[in-house]
Amino acid sequence: MIRAWLAPAMALLAAGCAASTAYRPPTTPVAPAWRAAPEAGAITIGPWWRAFGDPVLDRLIATALTENLDIEQALARVDQSRAAAAAAGAALLPSGTVDGQAARVRQSIETGLGRVSQYVPDFPRTVNQYQLTTGASWELDLAGGLRRGREAAGAEAQAAEAMGAQMRVTVAAEVADAYVRLRVLQQRRAIARGQRDSAQRILSLTEQRHRLGEAAARAVEQARANAAGAEADLLPIGAGIEAQLNRLAVLAGRAPQADRMGLDAEAAIPSAPLPGAGSPGDLLRRRPDLVAAERRLAASHARVGVALAEYYPRLSLSGLLGFQAQTAGRLLTGDANVIQGAVGLRWRLFDFKRLDAERDAAEGREREALAAYRQAVLRAAEEVENGYATLGARRTEVAVRTRETDAAGKARAMTDSAWNVGEISLFELIDAERTLLAARDRMALAQGEAALAAIACYRALGGQE
């Protein structure tokens, strides 16, 4: 039985340090160019959010990148992974300790040497013990398992660093998203207030005409219902504004409602820029989450080497040098010195079934990491294509909505003149008013969606700072 296990073990030992192969980054096929992205335009250099030309947005993102607690957690994880990598590297080096002890011991006469002492005159039961030693040990990494462990820990640290960068991308994009949504809601609130004021004005005019006998009671009730509806439309918009203000506060690492950050005043919706896309190959280097996925794959490959190294014997050297004495005065004398050297061997010779299972598990994790990386590349390409397709449609929509709003404004002006001279009914006036305000509302929404699509593009491209 022993010989059956010994033959493959010796074969593995003869293989020496070939416990694993060197890591090679995977080749992932990508398209030569983006389908939906514009052909012109270089990749954005510097903080991408500055392309929106909004100093308030710049200030908010700068604050969030400094104070956000999700980023702080990511930085803490980076520190942890770096410490783990340092510890894995230290495992390749000799380790040493210095031990010192001073003790007073009373020997039991019921066990061991104490029982013998009963037959020795003047044998002391109570003695002092002094010890000062230094020891060192070193595991010889014959099969490369420790080196592979260091590689794995280093790759995992790089993955953590990349995910820290990804968290900064995420936070910056979240701040920009919340800011754009806030400005859209503020614009819509201004439009809704205009609709409410117009409805109140129409109600007053209708009530005045009713008192003069120029308008029916039904017209008054219709105007009153229109005014109430316009007032009600403001309520969800106000709630949405509060939600986005709270969201921005939390992203900036502050308590909701503790600081409005100067955002109460309405401002224009940022115009949507057109990000330069570069090539799909650039995406693999720009997106931190793809870098992290590739580094996790490298770590899983190194872990396979760690598992394979367990098939081989592990040798270690250790030594001890010091002094031991029963009196402090003789501790550092030549007669008290202690010297010890040892060679250690550890070989899981009869544990091959478990080793096979550990190797299979490590290889399975590597295959999973490879599939995860390739899937992440495909998902990233999908996000870029979808982002540019959406951005192109939204920019076109803004142009169309601009023409719609201009036409509705002209029609509203002509309708208002006709109402003042009594050429049209109240219902026609209300309808023209609603058409104009609805067009303005759709315009604000289109501008916001275009800006959000641009943010999504920058985020999909890796959001370089």
Automatic annotation (TrEMBL):
GO cellular component: plasma membrane
Keywords: Lipoprotein, Membrane, Palmitate, Signal, Transmembrane, Transmembrane beta strand
Topology with respect to the bilayer: Lipid-anchor
Subcellular location: Cell membrane
Signal among keywords: yes
Annotated family: Belongs to the outer membrane factor (OMF) (TC 1.B.17) family.
NCBIfam families for this protein: outer_NodT
Protein name: RND transporter
Organism expressing this protein natively: Sphingomonas sanxanigenens DSM 19645 = NX02
